[in-house]
Each structure stands twice: as structure tokens, then as C-alpha cells.
Amino acid sequence: MINSTKSEKTVGITGASGALGKELTKLFRQKGYKVIGFTHSKTNYEINLESPNKWIKWECGEESSLKKQLEKIDILILNHGIYDLSRENSNYEKSIEINALSKFKLLNIFEDIALTNDSLTKKEIWINTSEAEILPALNPSYEISKSLIGQLVSFKKNLQDKNTKKKLIIKKIILGPFKSKLNPIGIMTPKFVSKKIYHLANSKKYLIIISPNPITFLLFPLKELFNFLYCQIIYKYK
Description:
This protein is α/β, with parallel strands linked by helices. The protein is built from seven helices and seven strands; from the N terminus they run βαββαβαβααβαβα.
């Protein structure tokens, strides 16, 4: 949760060179945070008042190599992803790897770091899943990958033990369509979305929903409730 000690906090943002990543970076820099930007992009990594304080180039599959950088981060925002309409099997593999498995690996690494953290301040991880987790996005590979990471995050959250809860805050971000290179006809602007994320993250809520679709606000809490009850049953009868 964002608080008055923000000037001492470091935020890590994956997908920092994308439309939403740039707006999140600008906003957190304006609020006094130090930002580390993780990117797959091959573009020049300019440093200015609206860019990350530091750029880190990485590739999916190299998550373990980021451990030292992740140790310095207080709030990690997993925002990277792809949207590919190709029907090739390789596209499904790539979408699942980047949109789901890569984020899950980083979540696990960051959790391990949090468990060895001696600071009284909890570490936080915010995972961007998308409403395509349960609603159609006109892209089967994207929907499958988002459904996977959504379920993984839900189970991870609901199966946390007491010690982990004391050390790590998990937030799931459900986003509707916003304008970007991946979705040029998105309804919302990245600037609007970034501001809503920042504002809603101040609450104690685990689920952060930003969408123009009212159905999203109905279905996702119900889905999360079902997952919670399911996990409670697992605990009771295991």
C-alpha cells in the first residue's frame, strides 16, 4: 500500500517502455518514488524526469537473473505482455510464456525475497492480468494466457500462509481495453488507467478493477469469492 514514506520506496515496473508502463513511470516519479524500468525493448534507454531512474534490459526465461535487482524493490508491478493474433502453435507457447509463466516466476522470486526481508515495511507485488481472464478478447492465445495467470495469482493469494501474509501484499489488477500499440482502439487512455491504479492501490483491496464494462465489476468478485471458498475447502480437508 502506498503511504507517506513513498520518497524512500523503489518501484519496479516490467513492460516499462509500453504505453501503460510509461504512464505509470511518470506518475510514480512525480510522486517522489525511485523507479526501475524492466523492458524487452531494444530502443535507447533515455534517462530524464519522466523515465525510470534506471533501465534494466531482460528477456523472458531470464527471471532468476533479476534477483539482485528485485531485492532493491519495494513495489513490483508486473505489466509486461504480448497480444498476438497468429494461429501458429508457437504463438500460444509464446503468449503463455510471456503473459503467464514469466509473471508467475517473478511472483515466486519476489515472494522468496519478501520472506527474507527484515524491514518492517511489507513488500508489494501488483500483477496486471486483464478482464480477458474470463471475458472474450477476440484472441484465443491471449485469453488462455490471461486465464492462466489470473488463476495462478488467485491461488497464490488464497493459499498464502500467515508468515507470507505478514511479508508480502499481492494485488491483482483487472484492466479493460486501453489505447496502446497492442490495442489502438482501446476505450481508456493509459494516463487514466495509471491514475486509477495508483489511487485504488491505496486501499486494502486485493482486487483492483478498471474497466468501462459493468459486467467486469460483477463477475470478477464472484470468481475471486469462488476461488477463496475453494481454497478454504482445500485447507480444511487436506
